[in-house]
Amino acid sequence: MTTSAFIASFITNSSLLALWGALLLHWLLPIPYPIHPLRIWHRLALLIATRVNHPHDNYAQRLLAGYLAWALMWFTVVVLLFATSQLVWYPTLFQLTLLWLALDWQHTSQLCHQFTHAYNRSDKDQCRQLLAPHLNRNTTVLSLLGLGKAGAETIILSYGRHVVGVLFWYALGGGIAAILYRLAIGLARAWSPTRAQYAIFGYPAIRIAAILDIVPLRLFALLLSLGRNGQVAIQGLRQQGENWHLPGPGWLLVVTGYKLALSLGGPAIYNNLKMQRPRLGGRITPAALHIVQIQQLITQRLYVWIAVESLLLYFWSGIL
């Protein structure tokens, strides 16, 4: 194939064009976190929960309310997106825009850099401030070592859900699937059962998110395991892969922990109550150097992920 033919085939492949266009736009024109449309979605979810989640209701009523509230919000957006897709003049630009909204690679990278600098200075207040918007647990009681572990887990899962998961669902269903995945993750975050008021109401959201996460995060965990300490990481998966309460994130944490010999998981305080979580990975408590190593490892594998996905989109036009 000549160069001109390759370029022509690239331009005519709308899925691939939207993918690289969204990645480029995301890095050149990132949406500031405080004004991101998904923040509006988060606040709307909290508002709806206050109306339909009644603590005095019985278990079945609260669980049903959780399913109905989730369906109301998510399927409303589904209808709006598919209706809009029939009206747009440039479908590729529409898919590109949705993927751009769904991606959150740069903010995760910035969080990693900011947290690493603060953690290296032993600035606990700054570390807590950086992690507070991303954690449902109480950050004020975390020690410096606890902040390091929480920061490592936050960065790993943020890359997994806000980049890997988004790109995976984009490959399967375009920009609509990518943004719908992020909205589902957003509902699980807003209604996390680790918060006392959502202990029952939030189960449907977290279960659906777990189903959507399991394939992309496990595939990426296997990709992470390749290379140095790969056998150790695979052995760790056999021993602890099913220990975590969520199957997709659990594999990511286990592989990263064993590959870099880092201690992840362990007890955490939610709503002033100590929750016992399994300990994963090695024995070294994450330090600033290890946070950098985590980012380097994940970023390198993300390039491979994007390259493989681009090849699939090129040859099969987005149909896996």
Dominant shape: globular
Strand order of the largest sheet: 1-4
What percent of residues are in strands? under 5%
Overall strand count: 4
Mean pLDDT: 88
Give the topology, please.
Blueprint: H1 3-12, H2 14-28, H3 37-52, H4 59-85, H5 91-102, H6 105-120, H7 124-131, H8 144-190, H9 203-225, H10 230-240, H11 247-259, E1 263-265, E2 268-270, E3 273-275, E4 279-281, H12 288-316
Antiparallel strand pairs: 1-4, 2-3
Helix pairs in contact: 2-5, 3-4, 3-8, 4-8, 5-8, 6-7, 6-8, 6-12, 7-8, 8-9, 8-11, 8-12, 9-11, 10-11
Protein model, in words:
The protein has 320 residues and is mainly alpha-helical. The chain is 71% helix and 4% strand. The chain is built from twelve helices and four strands, in the order αααααααααααββββα. The chain has helices spanning 3-12, 14-28, 37-52, 59-85, 91-102, 105-120, 124-131, 144-190, 203-225, 230-240, 247-259, 288-316, and strands at residues 263-265, 268-270, 273-275, 279-281. The strands form two sheets. It has a two-stranded antiparallel sheet. The longest helix is centred in the middle third of the chain and has 47 residues, at 144-190. It is globular, with a radius of gyration of 20 Å.
